[in-house]
Amino acid sequence: ANIIMRIGFLILAHKYPHQLIKLINSLLKYENSTIILHIDLKAEALYQEICDKYSKHNKVLVLKNRYKVYWGSFNQIRATLELIKEGVTHNLQYYCLLSGQDIPIQPINKFAHFLEQNIGAEYLVNFKLPSVQWEEGGINRLALYYFDVETNSVLLKKISSLVLRIQRFTGFKRKIKHELYGGANWFTLSNGALGYVCEYLEKNPSYLSSFKFSRCADEIFLQTILLNSSFKPKIVSESLRVVDWSSGPEFPKIFKTNDFEKLMRMPGKFFARKFDETVDDEIIDKLHSHV
After folding, report:
1. Tens of pLDDT, residue by residue, the chain (291 residues)
2. Cα–Cα distance, 276 to 255 (Å, whole number)
């Protein structure tokens, strides 16, 4: 059967317009791509530039509803949810969450072919919490209250760390009602799975609010909904992308030109992150021309 796989690429972006435009154009090479972007509310110039460039393009949509996204904050979850909610209205077959610093390492039609061969599978890295893979088992990401600001104010930093210390000292913990699962937030999920997530959140509004003032809980949010649902047996714990958390010097490592051959030898991986045009622009162009 020749299914023409319709794929939505949901992109969280906050910098590097040139790099982002290369990514969008690369994804558009596949004719059944729909691209939906959340551009950080703090990145106004980027927002304007992308809106202007793609205003006439019916396959590229820039969300108007935007959040100030700080590393690990609740707004990371809200931004992702905006993308998901817009995505499911297009009724595509699969949705792939990317960052603006990801790059395909194989042609998108190969990715589409892979999804066709594995239709019904859901790709979301997951493990039960607490897990040794995460500091303090990962539970404290949700059980303790964190400030949602990325701040240069010394006073705020001191207050924030004091609040954490008080919680730890008194043994204070937020009550958690669910069996928690965690894993990387980058996913490739079907319309059915994301439709279920939206439905679940409508019926259980308290679930979303229980993630306020959490830290890096975007890596718990979807996993906990889907692994406590009938989708569990369909979920493959795999992100289909290359991310290097071990080599350094940055975590995750920023790939450079000398990583090209290694990225080519990654069977079953279709994207890689992360790339930075100010560190190494050559690898970015090399990969885009390769795919």
Report:
1. 456 899 999 999 999 999 999 999 999 999 999 999 999 999 999 999 999 999 999 999 999 999 999 888 999 999 999 999 999 999 999 999 999 999 999 999 999 999 999 999 999 999 999 999 998 889 889 888 887 666 667 787 788 888 888 877 887 788 777 899 999 999 999 999 999 999 999 999 999 999 998 889 999 999 999 999 999 999 999 999 999 988 877 878 999 999 999 999 998 999 999 999 999 999 999 999 998
2. 8
How many C-beta atoms lie closer than 10 Å to residue 30's C-beta? 19
In order, the DSSP letters of 184-248 are -S--EEEHHHHHHHHHHHHH-HHHHHTTTT-SSTHHHHHHHHHHTSTTGGGEES--SEE--SSS-
238 vs 48, 125, 155, 189, CA distance in Å? 35, 5, 41, 11
